[in-house]
């Protein structure tokens, strides 16, 4: 697929879309030819990775891009971004912006599959098309011909990753919520399910298979994955219940449920997530793994189930269930493409090359902390430095790192894993979260004993992290000597490029398309010493002022910059900060 990545580039200037008027049909300034390896290095890929892949290429006779991806040296999104720079075409990622839902063009799925192309959005004048291999001229040619015939519009080609393409193919499958409801309405053994449950609170395997409710849950899960929902809410309503999906950080109602449908659904979730079905008075946590969906491609997806009994007067069953969808196929994005402000990015790049110290990422759940950490760690030369991660859950697989999944159920806790990690000769450690005093202390010990540590902390902003750390029993001197910097972040939706927030078909009438990062950094150094002391005394406002005086901008300032640049608006900022 990427076979033309390193050859055939001389012909680029001959690239032509067979449209009516070439000048109008394709609007690309061809950049001077540069090698893909050089561009990747400019995009923070360690040069040693390119050298290694070039050596491998001589033995394996595979395209460079393919080797880089197979070895986890480069992420598909990073490669696509580099290809976009090489060809002068824009880069598009489904992990940054959604596709237009209804493009109004009848696509032949066979053509799409063969040519690996994706319609991104259609406006009155343009049609944006994503392609995985912009260097395959024959393919480009037939794609241009196809869309020219389908829509008499100017074609704007974009480079997309193979992952974006696969996600698009997945999105072609439509799951109608009415179908889920009809499965829940089928007469099923679960209409009297409680009677079928044996004494240990679990259903017999044989009985499980026959349940229509299982099929309904499978479809609900598939729909959540396809629509990239991060959470599924199943909750009681005045009559019956409802299902909501959280997408791009915002909840929306998927469907209402009759009382019977609601009860069947919460029962099947309880059964499949292996929580105790009989005890309905206490909150419970469970999980359902991807194999439940009976589809190989979902094996890396996991569903974390949280059940809380909800007060409701009319009947006894009123579980509120939230299922977090963990799609580990989520891609790591190129660090320079996250929307981080240049000041923060610059400091982060300095910190990540240190041999020891701690970089703390903070912000609420869903603010993209882990994505930033993965994207940052992907730019560190992990061939020369040993990287160990301790996570719950492991959200992204990288074959260059040793990744440890903790498991509280078998008492394999963060603290225990971290103690073991030290014997594993690490240079860089990613500790998923400092969640309690014990894990915070061990994490600090690691940063103090010659390791570079990435970690997250639950705090509102970078300054408030300081009193939080003190309250976790970390001493002031530990903070001063170990912490390199604290980064706080939020994700804010950005305006749709087609209508600039006015709402159009390209953005599914939301006005927004994709998200950007709002960031601030608190570098711990001699300039900010005064601010650090103030933060330690709990003088948050004074500390904030003092930091601003050293020229370091806060979250609000970064947000205001993004409003000035007309990327997002004040409503969105108020929502996330
Ligand atoms: Zn729009």
Task: Tell me about this structure.
This protein is α/β, with parallel strands linked by helices and 577 residues long. It folds into three domains: 9-161, Type II secretion system, protein E, N-terminal domain (GMP Synthetase, Chain A, domain 3), CATH 3.30.300; 173-327, Beta-Lactamase (2-Layer Sandwich); 338-576, P-loop containing nucleotide triphosphate hydrolases (Rossmann fold, 3-Layer(aba) Sandwich), CATH 3.40.50. 36% of the residues lie in helices and 20% in strands. The protein is built from 23 helices and 17 strands. α9 (177-185) runs antiparallel to α12, α12 crosses α13 (259-272) and α20 packs antiparallel against α21. It is globular. The protein starts with 21 loop residues before the first helix and ends with a helix. 43% of the residues are buried. The chain binds zinc ion.
Concise account of the structure shown:
The chain folds into 3 domains: 9-161, GMP Synthetase, Chain A, domain 3, CATH 3.30.300.160; 173-327, Beta-Lactamase (2-Layer Sandwich); 338-576, P-loop containing nucleotide triphosphate hydrolases (Rossmann fold).
Low-confidence stretches: 1-25
The proportion of residues forming helix, as a percent range, comes to 25-40%
> In CATH, what is the homologous superfamily of the largest domain?
P-loop containing nucleotide triphosphate hydrolases
**Which architecture of the largest domain does the CATH hierarchy give at level 2?**
3-Layer(aba) Sandwich
CATH class of the largest domain: Alpha Beta
Alpha-carbon Rg, integer: 26 Å
Described by the principal axes of the CA atoms, the overall outline is globular
What ligands are attached or bound here?
zinc ion
Q: Biggest β-sheet, characterized? A: 7 strands, mixed
The strand count comes to 17
Spatial arrangement of strands, main beta sheet? 13-12-14-15-11-16-17
Q: At the third CATH level, what is the topology name of the largest domain?
A: Rossmann fold
Let me know the average pLDDT. Answer: 86
Strand percentage, roughly?
Answer: 15-25%
**Annotation field: number of helices:** 23
Distance between the ends: 42 Å
How many structural domains are formed by the residues?
A: 3
- Would you tell me the structural class of the helices and strands? alpha/beta
